[in-house]
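Weekly sync notes, structure subgroup
Attendees: PM, AL, DS (notes)

Item 1: joint prediction request from the bench team. They want all two components modeled as one assembly rather than separately. Inputs as received:
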Amino acid sequence: MTNFELFNYISGELNQVEEQLLNNIHSDLPVLESASAHLVKAGGKRLRPAFALLSAKLFSDSVQDVIPLATALELIHMATLVHDDVIDNSSLRRGQETVKSGWGNRMSIYAGNFVFANALLLVESYHRSDIVDVLADTSMRICEGEIQQMVSCYDTQQGLKDYLRRIERKTALLIAVSCQLGAMAMNAAPREITALKRYGYYLGMAFQVTDDILDFTASEEVLGKPVGSDIRQGVITLPSIYAIKFDQRGQKLKTLLSSPDSCRQRAEEIIDIIVQSDGIAYAYQVTNKYADLAIRQLQLLPDVPVRKALADLACFISGRDY
Amino acid sequence: MTNFELFNYISGELNQVEEQLLNNIHSDLPVLESASAHLVKAGGKRLRPAFALLSAKLFSDSVQDVIPLATALELIHMATLVHDDVIDNSSLRRGQETVKSGWGNRMSIYAGNFVFANALLLVESYHRSDIVDVLADTSMRICEGEIQQMVSCYDTQQGLKDYLRRIERKTALLIAVSCQLGAMAMNAAPREITALKRYGYYLGMAFQVTDDILDFTASEEVLGKPVGSDIRQGVITLPSIYAIKFDQRGQKLKTLLSSPDSCRQRAEEIIDIIVQSDGIAYAYQVTNKYADLAIRQLQLLPDVPVRKALADLACFISGRDY
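Output from the run, pasted for the record:
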């Protein structure tokens, strides 16, 4: 299975989500509509809708009812992305300009809020307070994760636990919730809902650790952004944490990573140290562990073809042969 | 009635709201908690909670059930304020720095999102999808209003309609919804809910027009911000729109208001022209008209002492003797 063949199970539904994304950002204000449409058209893997739909498919072939929910999950994800794009005064002062859109900071905020409010309206159409509850709680915790990421930049004291907690909120939570809500919308049994939530959580963790590895090892073409962009921004991920602690050049690495200037100017040197350490191999072990945990959850779920596909996906994400 | 004596009806409940505001922004992240607490402690008139509570008081003396809702309404208002504080690249480039907080742009966004998500959780505790629905829809429209305000800066072509539509979304909507939801939480009859929503809408319009007048006429002490701060930021309000159209110096005013530089450097000259025109008197007529409309809605509501107080408030806001 390459390139998410898994998505074939739900390609029709994903096309509908794509249509619904555009339908649900309508505004009478042309500038708002075009900014929001730009967000939608910027693409993305639509992972969160896919997880909601695949989870639902475990319980029935007909998952039409999950389309609005799947759309809402992607809108929420998009809202967080556009807010993450806003530049800070301080980073601007250092001469960095990372916002790609031509709309500026304030428009990015309002477009994010607008998209989020539209997601809320979509979810509200289910008249299910359990679903709204899960999403409100998740939004709050994602927000905490974004702040954790912000305040932990250049912090070379952070350990494995800090890192895991941060990526949990940054990535794993919304994927867990996507799986959970897909099952809830199909009125699955509580133990099945919990199993899917955990599957999504572990898979989300594996996914983010892999993503953080790729920032060191993949080519710019594969990533769609410069190699080492985490390092350049002072974002310290698992391979760095491992290398600081266990590599013989750990102390030097620690010094380099704690300064914004050296992170930017000596990024390649930093990347070399990490790639030559055992940090990457260790991070792969972690993704493997999470993938195993994800797969184990699937035993509690209906034995239909999608279940096998979900297991394959966990293997794919952790980079294993299967 | 000076200084909102009206609030005496609900002083106990407002104290509870004050406590709840702080209780509902708890986070394990100290930086997030302190930024959010700073927002709460910055104060404000707590108008939106007051309107929800007063509306509820029309139907029963015991309005305990409305406390979480009233708290949520203020949290939503605070979230929009902190997002409005974020500076744009462009305004920074022009050398303006308007963000007062010491936390920077990104923290302001995340704190706003966090506070909003907490409001959502509070509202969700009612398990009333009609209430969540109203709030989701309102958030979307408030957002549109903020963008309208942003794109209409320095736009001297805008007319009365543009202005009214903008302040409707900026201010009147959330006040209307505060009144509406106060009644909904008390399970008032549909016609009573509608009457209160309209009362809040008209009162909110009167309130914002008055606020826009005060930006020209009040002292810095009363305002808590520099006189003419709208003009300096290129925000064109009713007195300006009137003066551009009808004053003999209208054309000159138009030229001055259409340039960010002259708005900043020649603000006092601009203010003089507007204050000497009939724009202020015209704006007072408009607030009076809205206050009348607000008062008229009250006829459909229970004849209890709070009703008289709500009528007094409308007079107070429109600056009339009564």
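Discussion: The domain at 186-322 of chain B is CATH 1.10.600.10 (Farnesyl Diphosphate Synthase).
Action: AL to compare against the crosslinking data before next sync.
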